[in-house]
Amino acid sequence: MNKTIPIFYGINDIYSPYLAAAMNSLIKHTTPNHNYVITVIHQDVSAENQSKLKELEQNNVKINFKKLENDLRSDLNDDQNPLRADFVTFTIYYRLFIADMFPEYDKGIYLDSDTIVNDDIAKLYEQELDENLMGAIPDAFITHDPVGRRYSKDALNIHENFYVNSGVLLMNLKELRNQHFSEKFLDLLNQYHFKLIAPDQDYINAMCFGKTLYLDPRWNIQPENMICDDFKPKIVHYNLFGKPWNYDNIPFEELFWNSSKETNYYESVLKNKKEYTAEQRKHDQERKDLLVQRIIDTPDLDVTFKKIEDQGVKIRV
Question: Does this entry carry the keyword Glycosyltransferase (predicted)?
Answer without folding.
Answer: yes
